[in-house]
Fold:
Amino acid sequence: MTVYKSVIMSFERKSIYYFNEPGPSNTDDAARIAVERAMELELPTIVVASTSGDTAQKFLTAARGTGIRLVVVTHVVGFAKPGEWEFSKAAAKELREAGALVVTGTHALSGLERALSRSPKVGGGSRTEAIAEALRRIVAVGLKVAVECCLIAADQGAIGIDREVVAVGGTMSGADTVCVIRPAHTAAFFDLQVREIVAMPRIR
Structure:
C-alpha cells in the first residue's frame, strides 16, 4: 500500500470582498478596502482610475492621514470628445494640492489599436484589444482598468516597477475592483503580475 503524505506549504490567510453587483455604488467600500490592504502590506501607493475626478476625491478622503500616496490615472484627452479632457480641473487642483499625482496617458490596451479596429478600411480586432477583452470578460472590467492604469503610470514614471502597488478600477464609473499588482511597462506587459484580487464584483 502506498501512503501519500500531504505537505502544507506556507500560506497567508487574507480577506477577499465580493460585491453583489458592479458599479459606482461600491466606490466608498472599495476605497476603504484599498487603504486597508495598502496599510496591511505596507505599500505606499494606491493607483486609482478616475474619469471625472469624483472617484479620486473619495479615495483622497479615505487615504487622508495615512501617508499613502495616491496616483490618479485619467482618461486620455479626446477620449469622449476630440480635444476635451473629461477630468474636472477643480478636482485636479485639489488632488495635486493634497499631494496626489494626476497622470494622463494613452490607453495601453487600446490606443492606436482602437483606431485600426474601428476603421471601416481596416476593421477587425487586434491582439492588444483581445487581451483587454479577456481581462474584462473572464475576471472583471475593473481588473482590466487596474492593469491598464498600472501600465500607464509606469510608462509615465509615476510608479516604479520594483514594488507592488494597490490598484483600483471600476465598471463604467466609480470603483469596484481592488487588487495588488507588481507593475511593468507596457513594452514588458507580460512581466506585470496581479498578485492579489482584494475585491471585485461577483456578478458581472
